[in-house]
Specification:
The complex is a heterotetramer of chains A (about 230), B (about 250), C (about 55) and D (about 200).
Chain A (H helix, E strand, L loop, with lengths): L10 H18 L1 H22 L3 H24 L4 H6 L1 H6 L5 H30 L7 H26 L5 H28 L5 H29 L2
Helix pairs in contact in A: 1-6, 2-3, 2-6, 3-6, 3-7, 3-8, 6-7, 6-9, 7-8, 7-9, 8-9
Chain C lengths: L1 H4 L4 H43 L1
Chain D lengths: L3 E11 L2 E12 L2 E6 L6 H8 L7 E6 L2 E2 L4 H5 L2 E4 L11 H11 L7 H8 L14 H14 L4 E5 L7 H16 L3 E5 L9 E6 L2
Parallel strand pairs in D: 3-8, 3-9, 6-7, 7-8
Antiparallel strand pairs in D: 1-2, 1-4, 4-5
Helix pairs in contact in D: 3-5, 4-5
The chains are: A mainly alpha (about 230), B mainly alpha (about 250), C mainly alpha (about 55), D alpha/beta (about 200).
Chain lengths: ~230, ~250, ~55, ~200
Amino acid sequence: MSAIKAGQPGILAGLLAITRRDLLLAWKRPGDVLNPLFFFAMVCTLFPLAVGPSAEQLTFSGPGVLWVAALLSTLLSLNSLFMSDHEDGSLDQLLVSPQPLPVLALGKTLAHWLISGFPLVLISPLLAITYRMPSDIMGVLMLTLLLGTISLSLLGSIGAALTVGLHRGTALLSLLILPLAMPVLLLGANTVSLAAGNDIYSTGIWALGAYAVGSISLAPYATAAALRISNE
Amino acid sequence: MWKFFHQLASPPHFYRLAATLIPWLAVPGVLLIAYGAYAGLFLVSADYQQGDAFRIIYVHVPSAYLSMMAYMMMAVGGGIGLIWRMKLAHAVGAAAAPLGAAFTFLALVTGSIWGRPMWGTWWEWGDPRMTSELILLFLYFGYMALRSSIDDTAKADKASAVLALVGVVNVVIVHFSVEWWSSLHQGQTVFKKGTMDADMRIPLFAMLIGFSLIFGAMLVSRLRTEVLFRERRTRWVRELVLSPEGGK
Amino acid sequence: MDALAMGNYGAYVWSCFGLTLIVVVLSAWRARARHKHVYREIEVQIKALEEHQ
Amino acid sequence: MTAKLSARKLTLIRGESCLFQGLEFSLSRGELLLLEGQNGSGKTSLMRAIAGMLSLESGEIFWNDVPVSDQRQEFHGSLVWLAHRTGLKGDLTLVENLRFEGALRRQADVDPATIFERLGIARLKSLPLRSLSAGQQRRVALARMMMADVPLWLMDEPFTNLDREGRQLVMDLTEEHLASGGMCVMAAHQDVKVDATVIRVNLS
């Protein structure tokens, strides 16, 4: 017996379709894309206001602040990852689709990263300049944020799937995801600090890369399992 | 053998067995802890570097050990529950979480108290084990929060099992990343391994086993409550409650 | 008295042991209390149902 | 190979109440399985259980005599589910919604335009769905069902939000699908007049 009949769209088609659909939805509601970005910028603004504009201190704490802000803004946007699908019944339809659920979960997370994580990576140099971070570490900063936000989106998708449909979802999501996200924050921020101090930082990049690869290959399965459980 | 496990997994059998099992775990546990504490406090001579403060390890190490064991049990229980749909395995997670959190708290506080005379500070971020332990405490909080926010027991079981499994992978990553991080900042040395004399080690083993037994007794007791609660609509619970001897 | 003072570390050592004792006893007590509580709740429910019939 | 949906000794418990126990049925090509019962009797739950979204307390559902749990993807490739909520995106247009569906599931070899024409939604093609009435959205969901090339239709209360003409349309569509060798599982609390073999399951 053939597993899937001829004419059944392949996995890649499913992945691209759901990514495209979510990007299209985001396009029609640009506020959802911009809010996390504004949030990111605002948290980065709060810090100098709180501790004072001393250049030395800002350069020193810049990587940490940018990373904490990136983590928080990713977390903020994750809450809505499965919410609208849950509300209008699309999630039910995804669960009975012939496409493997982990692939669909990966596609949704990919779209989420493209509209929340990726723009954040792009504007991070602007904020880094205000923190007087040396311009030669912008590459490292962006690379760590790129790898890190991918991991954070994927980790967060597990949490979002576990809390979808719960009343106290937002606070709970943070509680579940923050401890899981700590290694990413720790690796990312310290790698940038090392680079700023002209130390060897490649270990951190490799570790972040490994984390991202690991989460791409494992997190969608956990997310899919969690979605099936939450949607029972 | 298989039959034994099957019977163990049957709620009424477990409920009855657990009642007899608890004293068998608790009494030797208390005796071992009493011996270990006495020996650790009075019989063992002070460490030549740390002085008498090293005696704190007799409560700190067993707590830290149990804090990790409890998390492992939650993850293994969750995994078994998800794969073989064994309800008792899910109940293990529900029963172990508050105990694990309590021992994690103990490990943190005793570690911090030990650090005060040794490091001159109540909290040392540079110590990788303390930081990992703190993250572990947060993982317990997340697990318990998720459990308590889902009303349907079956759903809460499965969701928290997924979280525990994701968390257990993460605990390993936390461990290594924190180690790397503290090596960057020249972390302080903590309890060194392998420098203990035999007469220092024996009370520690007694404490470890004693703590494990007490933990086992509390776990079985909580598990018994979980089983009773989950089976509250069944006939055997009705018969148990209505029977003249009742239950404790 | 010297044995209790433990050099200058007595306060630290004793507070650790004391706290551990308190937490363990409290956990054990809570486990027991919860069992009693749950049992009583179920008992009341079942007996109420029994009388109703 | 004749396609067949069957269930053996299904027991489903939701929360504290047992919705059904020892439920059995068998459905072959050209037959309609009609789930009857009042609201809350478990029709939707049974439908969700058939779709594989609820875990059963005990029992097994079979597709072509193979347990569904062993071939979830193949089974999902053979069904389309018209749920209570349409599961369509209000921000997207009809065409965008259906294009997405087409990438997930094998599509029948028919011209979408004729389907839209028949359902009376051809002129609404480029509007976002949220500007459509509930009845029109339901028709879009029907279009999705008709465009999928699958033998099994799961229809949960397909008549809600539809006028008399729409209800008749649903019955006609069902009849045609059955006549062409399809299968339907339908939950409805009104009488369904369809010229085909009807297997009734009463859940009350």
